[in-house]
Specification:
The protein is an alpha/beta fold. It has a single domain, classed as Rossmann fold, CATH 3.40.50. It has 9 helices and 6 strands. Strand 2, helix 4 and strand 3 form a beta-alpha-beta unit. Helix 2 packs across helix 3. The longest helix is centred in the middle third of the chain and has 16 residues.
């Protein structure tokens, strides 16, 4: 049964030292209308853990229209491996077509990625989140400076509204990249083949590049922009924090 009136911050501290399975179990116990946001390696780890707790877990993904071909194959691999019904969200053509006509396909190199991400990612995500009471993400504290204070569970201030409180669970917040990949290897979890070619954090093809030795994993995303701005808006609350 979905819990529509509960203070998630009151529970957050109790779960700061809990593992992802405990956090997911708590999320599923309190919310029926909940889904996992899937795009990268962390998210598949969450799907793998979640399926052991709730075989009917809902999963969605954003198709911006600019993903690598390897990423599209990865989406299908995950769908088939876990037998999940993957809800793939697309941009609204009424927003996207005028934007591309006016600014072309690579305007973000000149004026930043916010407008493009707003149309290709944020708008479809907002439409989806308006139908949910809670969502699950693969954010980790050590991914970037903007995520250093991510809680394992929180009220999503960026996507909640006057008549809709959205709850957000980040079960891997306290995990490291090493823990994620140890889990992937130990449990034969599918992953994007681009990871084997030096890509660590993978987004849209024009805005993602390989990471060099000793570079931070998020340095391959929007590399032409300042480090503390490297959020597309999916987790806008991190910038406010």
């Amino acid at each position: 049964m979905t819990n529509t009136s509960f203070d998630i911050e009151a529970h957050a501290q109790d779960f700061q030292d809990k593992g992802p399975a405990d956090i997911l179990r708590f999320a599923f116990d309190n919310f029926d209308n909940i889904a996992i946001s899937f795009s990268g390696a962390e998210d598949v780890v969450l799907i793998d853990i979640a399926r052991r707790i709730n075989p009917e877990v809902k999963v969605f993904s954003l198709d911006t229209g600019r993903l690598h071909s390897e990423t599209y194959r990865f989406l299908e691999q995950v769908r088939e491996h876990y037998g999940v019904e993957l809800d793939v969200l697309s941009p609204d053509a009424a927003q996207l077509e005028p934007f591309v006509r006016e600014k072309g396909l690579y305007s973000f190199y000149k004026d930043g990625h916010k407008e493009c991400c707003g149309i290709r990612k944020i708008a479809p995500l907002r439409r989806k989140l308006e139908t949910l009471d809670a969502w699950v993400t693969g954010q980790r504290k050590d991914q970037s400076p903007t995520r250093a204070n991510v809680s394992v569970m929180e009220t999503d201030g960026a996507f909640s509204g006057p008549n809709h409180t959205l709850h957000k669970f980040n079960p891997l917040a306290n995990w490291t990249s090493k823990q994620v990949w140890s889990y992937i290897r130990a449990n034969d979890v599918p992953y994007n083949e681009l990871h084997s070619r030096g890509y660590i954090s993978i987004g849209c093809e024009p805005c993602t590049r390989q990471v060099l030795p000793n570079q931070h994993e998020r340095e391959g995303r929007w590399w032409w922009e300042e480090e503390t701005l490297k959020e597309c808006g999916l987790h806008a609350g991190n910038l406010e924090s």
